[in-house]
Design goal:
With about 260 residues, the protein is mainly alpha-helical. About 65% of the residues lie in helices and about 0% in strands. α2 packs parallel to α7, α3 packs parallel to α6 and α4 crosses α7. The N and C termini lie far apart (about 50 Å).
């Protein structure tokens, strides 16, 4: 248990940056043809969002620690009112946090104000591993608030949150990398997990597909609530039409885009 806690206590930003280097190198090595200069610049535009996320995450850190201290010190929440084995509590916590993210992601698409910020993530017309970092800072704030609210309601342990983060970081990269894998894996694992090919469909320009596959780690919520859709990866057109062009792919344009009257 001590070893697990040590692993889970690693700063997630180190994992994010380390995995970005790994996936970027793999894409450079195995995908042809490669425009190294163009790809490096593309990655930089997305990485700048991560620098802001690190600052925002540092500010959120106090809120997160305070929340879990409150839960622990007061034995607050549903799971602290009934006898629940610790392992079951942790596993349930991972599913509950993922369930929260499903609905917040869905609200991102259905609530116009939220969509103004979330569309920055969908703006990438040349999706690769670095697209995972192209997240507007405000999303980190309200996703965290939603997750912490459910942690308080259910009395979840911080271990659930750490395990979720430990799992989701590599999954984010896998979901956005443009490397191919055997489709047989979708059949074997796609009944439970939101496979990379499923998430790629979510980045299709056509809104019918954009408004689908909202899951983060698990696909069961999409299957349950009727938002699961598939499409051959080779037929997917990535990005949003209003972000076509080199200028509109720059960090400066993307960061001000929520305040520009574009559709």
């Amino acid at each position: 248990m001590e070893t697990i806690n040590q692993l889970l206590s690693i700063n997630p930003n180190y994992i994010l940056i380390g995995l970005l280097i790994i996936f970027f190198s793999m894409e450079m090595a195995f995908i042809r043809p490669v425009n190294f200069k163009g790809k490096l610049n593309h990655m930089l535009q997305s990485f700048l969002f991560q620098l802001i996320a690190i600052l925002v995450g540092s500010l959120l850190g106090l809120m997160i620690v305070t929340t879990f201290d409150f839960i622990t010190e007061n034995n607050f929440g549903l799971f602290n009112m009934i006898e629940v084995p610790f392992a079951l509590k942790v596993i349930a916590g991972v599913f509950i946090i993922d369930f929260s993210d499903y609905w917040f992601h869905r609200f991102d698409h259905k609530v116009p104000l939220f969509w103004r910020f979330h569309r920055v993530h969908h703006s990438d017309t040349a999706m690769d591993a670095s697209t995972a970092l192209r997240q507007y800072p405000t999303e980190l704030i309200y996703f965290s608030i939603g997750e912490l609210f459910l942690c308080v309601v259910f009395g979840l342990d911080i271990l659930s949150m750490n395990i979720f983060l430990f799992l989701i970081i590599p999954v984010f990269y896998l979901q956005h990398t443009n490397m191919r894998y055997p489709e047989s894996l979708d059949k074997a694992l796609g009944w439970l997990f939101l496979m990379p090919n499923y998430h790629k469909v979510h980045h299709e320009q056509d809104q019918f597909y954009t408004d689908s596959n909202y899951g983060t780690l698990f696909v069961i919520w999409d299957r349950l609530f009727g938002t699961f859709r598939t499409k051959p990866v080779a037929e997917i057109n990535y990005g949003l039409k209003e972000f076509k062009g080199k200028k509109k792919q720059s960090f400066l344009y993307l960061i001000i885009s929520p305040f520009i009257n574009i559709k």
